[in-house]
Amino acid sequence: MAYQTLFQEYMLVPPVTRAYTTACVITTLAVQLDLVSPFQLYFNPNLILKKFQLWRLITTFLFFGNLGFNFFFNMIFTYRYCRMLEEGSFRGRTADFVVMFIFSGVLMIISAFFVNLLFLGQAFTIMIVYVWSRRNVFVRMNFFGLMNFQAPYLPWVLLGFSVLLGNAISVDLVGMAIGHVYFFLEDVLPRQRGGQKLLKTPLFLKKLFDPAPEERDYVPLPELANVRPGGFDWRRRNPDDDNDANG
Hints:
This protein has eleven helices and two strands. By secondary structure, it is mostly helical. It has a two-stranded antiparallel ribbon. The protein is globular and about 50 Å long. The N and C termini lie far apart (67 Å).
């Protein structure tokens, strides 16, 4: 019974959030169990371009380090804000959410060629948090009961917390910069005079993730097909039938 309840709760998680967080957890467990090595997962341009190890373009986003505080901290924020985005401003627009993932991931990979970044999962988390915070500017936040602030300051608070943990700030800065690029192109530029929407979701993604509901013609039930409102049969009746019935 508990297993069924847990599975039902798991299936209630929006599809993109469910797929991404599950992939992150599975990847980390595989490393923890020595099934794979982090050296097989990190972003390495030479191995990607020369050895065609293309899986590194994906696995660099899935590994958050060994099981520990840093892993759980990043996974909590990834799951929470990814789900709130998908259930909030992207509700009913799963294909657009996938486009955000692809667009941000491509920009991060391009950035990784110029900045020494081995794993991009944390930057991806900061990007998600940044987009959510800019779309929820009036939400009041409380960070572990230590401080209160408006949502747009959340990425900067996480940046400061990352510094306290000894992490490189370049990862967070890349995530914030790419999050801002997406926010500008999607939410700011189209609202400017003469602006236009540059990020357009391909039709095949819309058909794949947001299929239109089927339109069906209404067919009345057989027993109701000849019944008019009020429950009275308003069809013209033969007076002889009434006389026969009274006789």
